[in-house]
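User: Show me an example of a complex going from sequences to structure tokens.

Assistant: Sure. Here are the input components:
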Amino acid sequence: MNKTDIQAMPAGLAGAGAGGTARPKVTTFATELGRIAAIGLFFAVCLFLFRSDPFILNMMAYTFLFAALSTSWNIIGGFGGQFSLGHGVFFAIGAYTTANLYFHWQVSPWLSLIPGMILASIVAVAVSWPTFRLKGPFFAIATLALNEVAFVLATYFDSVTGGPRGMLLPFKAGLVNMVFTSRLPYAIIMVGFLLISLVVAAYVLRGRLGYYLQAVHLDEDAARAAGIDVLKVKLTGMAISAALTGIGGALFAMYLRFVDPPTVLNIQDIGVKFLLIALIGGVGTLYGPLLGALLIIPLESYLRATLGGTIPGINLLILGGLLVLFALFMRRGIFGALQGAWERYRGARS
Amino acid sequence: MSGFVLSVENLTRRFGGLVAVNDVSFNLRKGDLLSIIGPNGAGKTTMFNLVTGQYPPSAGRVIFNGADISGLRPHARAKLGLGRTFQISKTLTTLTTLENAMVGAFLKRNNLSEAADYAMHVLDMVGLGARAGIKAGTLTLSERRRLEIARALALDCSVLLLDEVMAGLNQKEVESVIDLVRKLNGEGLTIMVIEHNLKVVRAFQSRVIVLDFGRLIADGSPDHVLSDPHVVEAYLGRQHA
């Protein structure tokens, strides 16, 4: 894959053209759309090949869901460099909104995606407004606390959340209810969500907001001097990221047909998972989170299936160890390492 | 009205008991090239930060194109046309040189390719066109300084503030940056520079103001200012004066 976004002009060509040096190519949103379409096609073939294997379909559904969620987290966490550990809250908001509307008023989950997104965005902006004053690890810790507070609130307000008992959603199969007897439709929905997340992330990254988020990430003072309203850029990135995360929560709720605090507000399995996947795949890159999910989710379900019974918690140990290794030796994740190798290869040839 | 692009009126900034900038006033006309000199700790960078909005003033006002901008935040001042560089270059190292300049160019352009074209244009102006495609983290110090200038120019700024852009550069690099500043000034850009190197100030042959302990102690041509006993005393101590 050609990931070198901008290629240096050979020295001999510098100065070509009337207006000055020929401009290096800049990756556009249209280019990314082509790549995303290719990715979509590839996954469509995968789904077709494994259409009657429920185990593989289940794993694919989770992989696509978490790839999408990590891609969404990456908008503010990667591009914008704001290491949120509180995205589980926006996920839970999406899940509870959809679950409630479906449970009490039989609203189609397709429709309740919208209020779920809006609510997740509003809460995200409201809690980020004060916490964005904190930098780096302090911001991360504040957002971690947010997840814990949400856990307590979700357990306490049982009229909305079903409390610790959770909410079991009635099985009424049908497209309108987003409830299916086979796993294939769920896997298709998750691929759709993944493609939407990628398109949104690409649109952000390849436009003004993406450049501004990266500038804010790298140097806030330089960003301000370039006319960037730092807080507004962070809040916009957060709102978009949280809205997508809310969709993910809603889809997760309908897939499991069960919502309770230990499931949706689980720090290891939800809140931290988004950034763990992004870190391993390549934080701040468009396709890094997807790569990370393709590695982590199947690995995790394999570990759980083979060793989970004999050594409880081994999957967390191995994931933790993996994260340490990546932090030490592959700071830019798999994607960053591939990109570096490609640049060296190109550099060696020219 | 006055016809000044930028006016600083009785500007004061205190940090606790320290008065970093003390009742400083001066004006800039369109196309001026003003050098600010002074010993270390004289308040030059604080002065810049007050003009560009990094700090609010303790007293006094900053007037830009006839409007009081003292209460505006830095990004709002940049939008109005105040571009600046930092003493310690703030290069966005993991982006390419072109992308760094594009961050500035997006201020007045929403379209990706327009921003990229304009960014390329300003990189050519500062002599970095051939370096557009490489990661900005691999640029040399003098190239980073040029890049900061390019990012400010990409804002379409009408006043450019340069904070010690020559510091740490070798003689040849200094001369080329002097040429660049002169060229930009010749094209009508109003420029304010903080400079330590008195040779540079002489080379500009334009107005100089001198700060010492936060106060403005001299204002005039380089020859006049650099022979002023107060200035000599500030730089070299009393016995030389």
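The lines above are the inputs; the final block is the predicted structure for all two components together. Chain A touches chain B at residues 5-9, 11, 14-15, 19-21, 23-24, 26, 28-29, 206-208, 211-212, 214-215, 218-219, 221-230 (CB under 8 Å).
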